[in-house]
Design goal:
The complex is a heterodimer. Chain A is of the alpha/beta class. Chain A has 2 domains: 2-41 and 302-409, Aspartate Aminotransferase, domain 1 (Alpha-Beta Complex); 48-299, Aspartate Aminotransferase, domain 2 (3-Layer(aba) Sandwich), CATH 3.40.640.10. Chain A has helices spanning 13-17, 21-25, 42-54, 65-85, 99-114, 133-142, 159-165, 188-197, 217-220, 245-248, 285-301, 303-322, 349-358, 371-377, 393-409, and strands spanning 30-31, 93-96, 120-124, 145-149, 170-176, 201-205, 224-228, 239-243, 261-264, 269-271, 327-329, 339-344, 361-362, 364-366, 382-386. In chain A, strands 2-8-7-6-5-3-4 form a 7-stranded mixed β-sheet, with helices on both faces. Chain A has a 4-stranded antiparallel β-sheet with strand order 11-12-15-14, covered by helices on one side. In chain A, a hairpin with a 4-residue loop joins β9 (261-264) and β10 (269-271). In chain A, α3 runs antiparallel to α11 (285-301). Mean pLDDT of chain A is 94; it is low at 1-9. Chain B is an alpha+beta fold. Chain B has a single domain, classed as Sufe protein. Chain: A (Alpha-Beta Complex). Chain B is built from 6 helices and 4 strands; from the N terminus they run ααβββααααβ. In chain B, β1 (29-35) and β2 (40-49) form a beta hairpin. Chain B starts with a helix and ends with a strand. The chains are: A alpha/beta, B alpha+beta.
Chain lengths: 412, 154
């Protein structure tokens, strides 16, 4: 699969950009919205076309060779995800539509079954709505308590305060690995250690972390890990849920349908073991294969190199942005990666994003699906620049120039 | 698209120095507008007496476009009948969405003219709601009296 990937020996965003057709089709595009969704490398785009052209048929059903080949590629994709996360077994990888579905699956099939009124779930103030609302559903349905671990002065997780929240009633800690608004890397090893010491399970939201940080779920020892494929340079509509096998085995099915059953009579059905138990219906076959192509791409680029690149570029962006009068970096202080949020005095983030757009600079403006964090920070909205493997210092230069232009227009 | 078409001087002036930017102690009509996409919030206060908008004001937080739109709207609505206000809204909405120009009564042509600088948002689809938020709140206030529900943009 890697034959079509031509990676330069040294990490070179300029060279990598050649692998993303979007940049050739949109000359001058300064794409700083990778945290919302990453652009797709040719290996994914053409690999999908190749799969549809060469190997496509439904999976897990056909006796014929083509279906067997398609099934093999689909299951190989699961193996690719397993290796990428260093999970112990392929059966620990459930294909879902994205992190949102992964969290909802855990909330309903684990939380909805094993939690009781008065049990506590802890999230952090840094969460995306997708790691808040499913737990609120559960709270309203069965009466669990939802506790919120606060941020500290630097905008990172206040580990001491988190530790104080833990109690024997804590059954689950659901937390992001990297904050989508501020780019903070959370101390997830400490979170897992402290939570496990109290007998609580841990779910980590890896949406922003997994494309940027080498992740080993066995070493982290988290119980669940979720991610979205489209933020990993893969297709939309596919993502992954990792769950420890011993836990997945205890969980009932997610949706009912084909592929997830062993036997069906009108009286009773029995269900497949994980992961099939959680994958009713024809899966997103091409999505899974495209995801695997994207993960192969990232592995070929080098995950340690990506981590180093995005760490350095984020620090560079923060340092450059700080030089602009009236510009405030949102909650900066700790180790941040991939994401910088900021405000500019006298220029509303929405106006700023429009001006940046006219300079061909694509950023996100708004609350970034993290309204509770915005409220906590006393902000209505921020402008967010986020980076990917194709981002480099020239993108930051363009951003700075466009922000200065906006300040001139608004007399800020 | 030239940015100056969107951020004309009159827009920037109203954004920096919004008119009628205050609450009303005893409104006969009130509504909150919220654009959940960007977090913009506006509250429209009105006092309708003898079939005319005797006073109208707003407060809230938002971008330059939504602030300028609310500010211009209060100036335009002052003294009109609610029906005239609705007619101006309908014409403005058509201008910024479909681009159509509705025929207005002669006494309302000046109002439409004054809103022309805001029609630059047509070139920026994501920003149309910024320009119409205050007007949607005005519309909701007329329909609901006090207290109004929060109206969301389209």
């Amino acid at each position: 699969m890697n034959a079509s990937i031509d990676i330069a020996a040294a990490f070179d965003p300029r060279a990598l950009r050649q692998q993303f057709p979007i940049f050739a089709r949109n000359p001058g595009l300064v794409f700083l919205d990778t945290a919302a969704s990453a652009q797709k490398p040719r290996a994914v785009i053409e690999g999908l076309s190749d799969y549809y052209s060469s190997d496509y048929a439904n999976v897990h059903r056909g006796v014929y060779h083509l279906s067997a080949r398609s099934t093999e590629r689909f299951e190989q994709a699961r193996g690719t995800v397993r290796r990428f996360l260093n999970a112990a077994d392929d059966s620990e990888i459930v294909f879902v539509r994205g992190a949102t579905e992964g969290i909802n699956l855990v909330a309903q099939c684990w939380g909805g079954v094993f939690l009781r009124a008065g049990d506590q779930v802890i999230v952090s103030e840094l969460e995306h709505h997708s790691n808040i609302v499913p737990w609120q559903f559960l709270r309203d349905r069965i009466g669990i308590e939802l506790l919120v671990a606060p941020i500290d002065a630097s905008g990172g997780l206040d580990l001491k305060a988190f530790e104080h929240l833990l109690s024997p009633r804590t059954k689950l800690v659901a937390m992001t690995h990297v904050a989508n608004v501020t780019g903070h890397i959370l101390p997830v090893r400490d979170v897992v250690r402290l939570a496990h010491a109290r007998g609580a399970k841990v779910l980590l939201d890896g949406c922003q972390a997994l494309p940027r940080i080498p992740v080993d779920v066995q070493e982290l020892d988290c119980d669940f890990y979720v991610f979205s494929g489209h933020k990993m340079y893969g297709p939309t509509g596919i993502g992954g849920l990792y769950g420890k096998r011993a836990i997945l085995n205890t969980m009932p099915p997610w949706q009912g349908g084909g592929d997830m059953i062993e036997t069906v009579t009108f009286e009773k059905s029995t269900f497949q073991p994980p992961p099939a138990r959680f994958e009713a219906g024809t899966p997103d076959i091409s999505g899974a294969i495209g995801l695997a192509l994207a993960l192969d791409f990232l592995s070929a680029v080098g995950r340690d190199a990506i981590f180093a690149h995005e760490t350095a570029l984020t620090a560079h962006a923060i340092a450059r942005l700080r030089d602009i009068p009236g510009l405030t970096i949102v909650a900066s202080g700790a180790h941040q990666i991939g994401v910088v949020s900021f405000t500019v005095d006298g220029v509303h983030p929405h106006d700023l994003a429009t001006v940046l757009d006219t300079h061909n600079v694509a950023v996100r403006a708004g609350h970034h699906c993290a309204q509770p964090l915005m409220d906590r920070l006393g902000l209505d909205a921020t402008t967010r620049a986020s980076f990917g493997v194709y981002s480099d210092e020239s993108d930051i230069d363009a951003l700075i120039g466009a922000v200065e232009a906006a300040r001139r227009i608004f007399g800020a | 698209m030239d940015l100056r078409e969107l951020y004309q001087d009159v827009i920037l002036d109203h954004a920096r120095h919004p008119r009628n930017f205050r609450g009303l102690p005893d409104p006969s009509h009130l509504a909150h507008g919220h654009n959940p996409l960007c977090g913009d919030r506006v509250t429209i206060f009105m006092k309708i007496e003898s079939g005319r908008i005797a006073d109208v004001s707003f407060d809230g937080r938002g971008c330059a476009i939504s602030t300028a739109s609310a500010s211009l709207m209060t100036e335009i609505l002052m003294g009109l009948t609610p029906e005239q206000g609705e007619q101006v809204f309908a014409a403005f909405h058509a201008r910024v969405t479909s681009g159509d120009t509705l025929v207005l009564a002669p006494e309302l042509e000046d109002a439409a003219e004054r809103l022309e600088p805001l029609t630059g948002v047509r070139g920026y689809p994501a920003r149309v709601k910024c320009a119409t938020l205050a007007w949607h709140a005005f519309d909701a206030a007329l329909k609901n009296g006090v207290p109004g529900d929060t109206v969301k943009t389209e």
